[in-house]
Amino acid sequence: MSGRPSLEQYKKNIEARDFKAYKCAKCGAVIAPPVGVCYSCGGTQMEWTGVSGKGKLVSYTVIHVAPEQFQDEAPYYIGIVELEEGTRITVRLTGLDPQRPAEVKIGMPMVLDYDTGKSGRTYLAFRPA
Amino acid sequence: MPLKNTNIVSAAQTKFGKLEGVTLREMFAEAVDKATTQAGVPKEDIQAAFIGTFIPEMLVHQGHTAPLLLDYAGMRGLPATRHEAACASGATALRAAIMAIESGLYDTVLVAGAEKMTSVSTNRATEALAAAADDEFESGIGLTFPGVFAIAAVAHMQEYGTTEEDMALVAVKAHKNASTNPLAQFQKEITLEKALTPRYIAWPLKLFDCSPISDGAAALVLTSNEKAKQYTDTPVRIIGTGQASASMNLCDRTVLTSFEASVKASRIAYDMAGLGPKDMDFAVVHDCFTIAEIIATEDLGLFEPGEGARAVREGVTALDGDMPVNPMGGLKAVGHPVGATGVKQAVVVYRELIGEAGPNQVPRHDTAIMHNFGGTGATCVVNIMRRADA
Question: ipTM of the predicted structure?
Answer without folding.
Answer: 0.97
